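Late entry, evening session. Most of the bench is empty. Finally got around to the prediction I had been postponing all week. Sequence below, unchanged from the version circulated by S.P.
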Amino acid sequence: MSHHFITVLSHLLLFKAVVPLPSLSEAEMSYLWNQIEEKGLREKHDFKVLEVGEVVKWLDELPFEVTTMGRSYREDRAPFLSAEASAKLALTFQEG
């Protein structure tokens, strides 16, 4: 989790947010939960872990490469999987 996002969750949001997290490897999830605990974010926000992975299939089918911060999903999957988790969570609100 970037320090930018941690700052928003820690200091800028004035309400409890539902925060999507992608289901990552055990080591990656442990790292995320440690960040959340260290900053006291678990008490402030509701974190939802969502199963992800479909975005990788879609990106493989594109005739061009998508990058974020200069890296493709092959180099750093977490931002792409996080975007998928965000989209999936948003759809649950739409569905009611």
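Two things to note before I forget:
The two ends are 28 Å apart (CA to CA).
Residues 78-95 form the longest helix (18 residues).
Will write this up properly tomorrow.
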